[in-house]
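seq:
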Amino acid sequence: MKDLLKFSVFIFLYFSTANSQEVKSISYASQGEKIVLRSDGTFQYTQRAHLLHFSAEGNWQIRQDTILVLDSRPQQSKMLVFPEFKKRMGKKKRFVVRGIDDNHSLHYHLYLITKSNDTIEYKNQFDSSVIEADVQAFYFYNTNGVRSPTYDLNQSRLNYFEVILNANRVFENEYWKYHEDYLVPITRLGEIAKYILPRIDD
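struct:
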């Protein structure tokens, strides 16, 4: 509660100095990754790493004591899955993967979680993959290093999956840790980062 009170007072004092027509902002950044929180409740996120470049905009809010919640705008899905049963597939399973923007075929890495909780990797795949394994869940990485959500197979009979992947960085009710003068982000792999984004003066 102490952290929340400090943050609320800071936000109030900082943003109250602006004109009614002016939108002020606070920035946090480190090593090519930056997020700008604006006084109107919106944010801008950018990340540059080697040949990769991500950018996103959306809305932010503070919950509880130390949680910064981010949602992309317009909201997009990270992954859409359309499962079917096709008799001709037999015991095999087929994954047909497309991009969300243009419905074109994608390069991707497929990870299967078996019923014995082993993980099978199918790297450097393109367009579609046919496998024969006892699978309970799966997920993908695209070539930008963005991890999809895990999709659980509730019906083992399903064997044909049309998958639509979003290659962009999507914030979907994403929780970052707030500690007064810095943030602990969630990485594009969906994990809590082992680094911080300190507040900077633009």
